[in-house]
Amino acid sequence: MAVDVVTEIVIDRACADVAEFAGDPSNATAWYANIDSVEWRTAPPVRAGSAMDFVARFLGRRLAYTYEVVEFVPGERLVMRTAQGPFPMETTYTWQPVSAGRTRMTLRNRGEPAGFGRVTAPVMAAAMRRANQKDLARLKRLLEAGGDGPPAG
User: How far apart are CA 85 and CA 114, in angstroms?
Assistant: First the structure.
């Protein structure tokens, strides 16, 4: 069974600001509660072909995986994919202006679990949806507060 989880949020910041911050994998630990570290394999900034190693916790397990950027349209879309491990995953971020100073960010995770993961796919999808909603809410709070994100513009 495939997992395909789509979550979105409207952030009261300009699209360019949201895309710049959320689209930089170096910032993932600031807004993803379960990501412990990100190490670049290729030199930043992000572009098609960039690769980075992530260490995360999910459902009580430590996960280490490498994402490769397969598509990057600055300010609009970022697609990263991993093929190794028990759960190959594709993560897509899209950013769309809603109005002046407001952005709709969509986060989509989809993949095809192998082995035992197939049995637990519905549980994984539900847990992923909850985690993604919390992470997007954290990103919204961070960017709207102007804290560690880019300056309000």
Answer: 9
